[in-house]
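agent> fetching stored inputs for the FE2/S2 (inorganic) cluster docking request
agent> found them:
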Amino acid sequence: MSSAPTELDESDEAVRVRMVVNGRKVACDVAPRVTLVDCLRGQLELTGTHVGCEMGACGACLVQLDGRAVHACLMFAVQADGARIDTIEGLSESGVIADLQAEFHRRNALQCGFCTPGMLINAHELLSQVSRPSREAIRDALSGNFCRCTGYEAIVDAIAAVAEARAAAAQGRGDSSR
Amino acid sequence: MKARAFSYFRAGTIDEALAAHADAGDDARFIAGGQSLVPALALRLQAPRILIDINHIDELRSVRREGEWLRLGALTRHCEMLTEPLVAEFAPLLRAAAPFVAHPAIRNRGTLGGSVALADPASEFPAMVLALDAEIEIAGPSGRRCVKASDFFIDLFETALAPGELLVAIRVPLFRSNQRIAFDELARRRGDYALVGCGMIATLDRDRIADISIALFSVGNVPTRARSVEAVLVGSSLDAGRIAAAQAALSADLAPADSDDVPAAMRVHLARVLLGRLLGRLGEVR
Ligand SMILES: Cc1cc2nc3c(=O)[nH]c(=O)nc-3n(C[C@H](O)[C@H](O)[C@H](O)COP(=O)(O)OP(=O)(O)OC[C@H]3O[C@@H](n4cnc5c(N)ncnc54)[C@H](O)[C@@H]3O)c2cc1C
Ligand code: FES
Ligand code: FES
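agent> prediction call returned; pasting tokens
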């Protein structure tokens, strides 16, 4: 414990992190200060998760941690050791948000697309908790997601439309659980 | 920006966390939800040498009834305030405040212990802990102790927690059927920190207020009890005249500083408006 530079190097040494990312077991070596979003985008080459403000303000970096939406810029990759992470790539491949994606596309709810992965992950969580959210509840759920292009209206429209469609489909199936 | 290099330790028990902190000295930080600490690290407002992760300490996790108290572990996430039935039944004031804390994804991760330990004067939960006359359980190198909320918040981001001490749980007196609560805040944008916020809990004796506790946030360096207002209200009923008298008394309780975007006079005005609305609501639910 003598000179500062040695200590900094020591604490910056990579540690092994094991996670299940989009259903696949992965291991990577990262320094403790590397955020989950940088690990996903850099080492794991999953660039669908975007990174904007790096301080929890914009919502571009949302992923699912053990099934719940969290900001990947507000946790370090080492903290996710042993956890299940699902990114926009995994949710897309599995098809669970295909209707949301189609409706975003149809209604021009994305332009540059920078905010879209975060919007979709939040919308997905909202619709899994509330089957027919009011427009106000949708806006509330998206309050931490910035979009610089669309003005939000089309995004709210798309989510409301999917909620309606899913509720109608559930009714058609005689499914009263939701 | 990126955080400065640090080493990382995942504690499995309270004792492990305390020992790791004691070993590292001043240069260690506990990390709970990380929703305030990680931005501070990214901006290099803080640069500890070691982070001690307390997220895997099971002892910090439970919400349970203990005699006349509801005991909420430090790791109770903000989102659990909205879903945990014990909170709805026995601490409805915390339930009422929770939707105003940040945004859904931040509530999935942020913790009650982190919010209270940080003591941001604009935060909802520290003020509600004060309104509820809660007790704060603390573990440190020299053992356990309990601090009353009224003694806990000392100054801007300064609490009764000494460096290296861990906030273990918060205990709030069980809500009773003759009590009423009200909570609201004024913010420019949903999810933003409030320009001013207020929560209250009243004990009723028929139509009169037997006891009332009112706490405001975003009105100064610490969450603030409105003691003069409380004194005006105790023993009386909530008619328009009494509410006006309570609003008039509020300036004796608040001394906010001018800030760039909110002059002190505006903040006191907003607090008065909010107080009037909330007392009106308390009156209605009877
Ligand atoms: C965009 C954004 C908006 C937000 N809006 C709001 C809002 O409107 N209202 C609001 O109240 N909050 C808001 N927050 C903050 C959020 O509520 C945090 O979760 C909370 O302030 C801190 O809790 P945490 O568990 O994340 O703590 P951390 O960030 O992990 O820690 C905060 C501090 O407390 C210490 N600490 C944590 N737990 C303990 C413990 N058990 N014992 C001792 N020390 C401990 C840490 O060492 C650190 O110094 C917002 C955050 C963001 C990013
Ligand atoms: S990059 Fe995470 S919230 Fe902006
Ligand atoms: S589509 Fe460009 S930021 Fe939302």
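agent> quick read of the result: Chain B has twelve helices and 14 strands.
agent> awaiting further instructions
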